[in-house]
Structure formats: C-alpha cells, structure tokens
Amino acid sequence: MYIIIVGAGKVGYHLGKLLMAEGHEVMLIEEDRSKVDTLSLEFHDSIMQGDGSAVEVLKEAGRTVRM
C-alpha cells in the first residue's frame, strides 16, 4: 500500500518507520527543510519538503508512487 504521511514529527516519523518495516511504500511530507535534510539520510527518497496542506504538494507526493 502507498501511504502519504504529512508531518515528520514524533508520530509521523515512528509511523513511517513502522509502515516501511511492514513493507508499505511511504512518502513523508515535512515543511521544515532542516528536518527533511536530516531525515533524508534515513528515509532517502521517501521524504519530501513541502506544505502538506497544499494540493500541489499532495499531487506531487502521489506521483512518486514506484510500482
């Protein structure tokens, strides 16, 4: 299943890790560029910077599905 999580705080971070460990494809959206830079070392291409309430950002996140 492809899951988009808005916010990479404590809940989003742990939820993303758990879902990825269970084999789901996850995209984290985080507005804070420094947090994205830090977490990209762990999440690689499964995290993106942007405002998760913006339609265009959600559309972009949806286009990253790797099937």
Describe the structure.
This protein is of the alpha/beta class and 67 residues long. It has one domain: NAD(P)-binding Rossmann-like Domain (Rossmann fold), CATH 3.40.50.720. 48% of the residues lie in helices and 21% in strands. It is built from 3 helices and 3 strands. Strands 1-2-3 form a 3-stranded parallel sheet, sandwiched between helices. The longest helix is centred in the first third of the chain and has 12 residues. The chain is globular. The mean pLDDT is 93.
Count the beta strands.
Answer: 3
Number of helices: 3
The backbone outline, from C-alpha atoms, is: globular
Strand line-up in the sheet with most strands: 1-2-3
Order of helices and strands: EHEHEH
CATH homologous superfamily title:
NAD(P)-binding Rossmann-like Domain
CATH class (first level) name: Alpha Beta
Give the termini distance in whole angstroms: 10 Å
CATH fold call: Rossmann fold
C-alpha-based Rg, rounded: 11 Å
- Helix fraction, binned, reads 40-55%
In short:
The chain is of the alpha/beta class and 67 residues long. The chain has helices at residues 10-21, 33-43, 55-63; strands at 2-6, 25-30, 47-49. Helix content is 48%, strand content 21%.
